[in-house]
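Reply to dn_fold:

You asked what the input looked like. This is it:
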Amino acid sequence: MTVKRLRGLLLLPLVLLSGCHLALLDPSGDVARQQSDIMIVTTLITLLIVVPVLVAIGIIGWRYRASNKQAHYDAHWDHSPSLELLVWAAPLVIIIAVGAISWIGTHQVDPYRPLTRVAPGQPVAADVKPLEVDVVSLRWKWLFFYPQYGIATVNQLAAPVDRPIRFKLTSDEMMDAFSIPELAGMIYTMPGMQTMLHAVINKPGQYQGFSANYSGAGFTDMRFTFEGMSPQDFDSWIAKARAAGGTLDLQAYEQLRQPERDAGTHAWASFEPDLYTRILERCVDASQTCMSQTMSADTHAGDAMQDMPGMHDDHAAKPAAMQAAETH
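and this is what came back:
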């Protein structure tokens, strides 16, 4: 194989990636940027041990090749304190460094932790309220509630730049994974449970959002567009959604939750005030009991049993047969 052909093969991966935008390495949101920095730094630290080992393999293989008669061979060599120290100390230091960076970084970008900054050197202003977005994953579409503005949308999400976003997420039936690589890390959605994600977008533009967890035949169509906008454009986007009219009530939601591939986008000017809570608590249908009511009833039942006479007397609470068996 000629040198020219070998060089071509080595450059082929770069040519294939030249037209791609690597969102994980060059994100547009501060949280995603911090996650990217953690990933890059830990990779570089790991390479401090990987690269020298690979180089040493080549050097040792070349130096002690069969045709090299000048290489010194000591048949009685069995130990070197300095080499032993290097072999153990270097990986240990790297493991400590990677562990420390990962531990600190993981807590800094905890999805449940409210943001303290919107960009490096730019803390969150005291008078700025986060944009609240309630997210519901359906088959196979995404439903977004904007409680501060009273609108709801399907497969379209927008936020003003440099404003913190607080997502609350749940699922109607299937377990999914909410992911916008440009914005922040992936977070799961699960029926009857709520997860949270804090993030911010710093650059205007359109970004791809999708489900990163397989949830059935329509999984590949479960995509949406996330738009980072200026505050003025975001206000216009809200006004346009309100102008669409319509109300997402319980009846409309029952139709929306039916499985549908390639659902497209839609907006409602208003929605049932407690609809997200009812989806979360699994009681959209009026005949269903909300989970909070069930847990409250269980708590009261438990308290009532504790107040019954004899419940705090272990001996009195045991059946007579068990007491007789213990006696014998």
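The longest helix spans residues 30-63.
Hope that clears it up.
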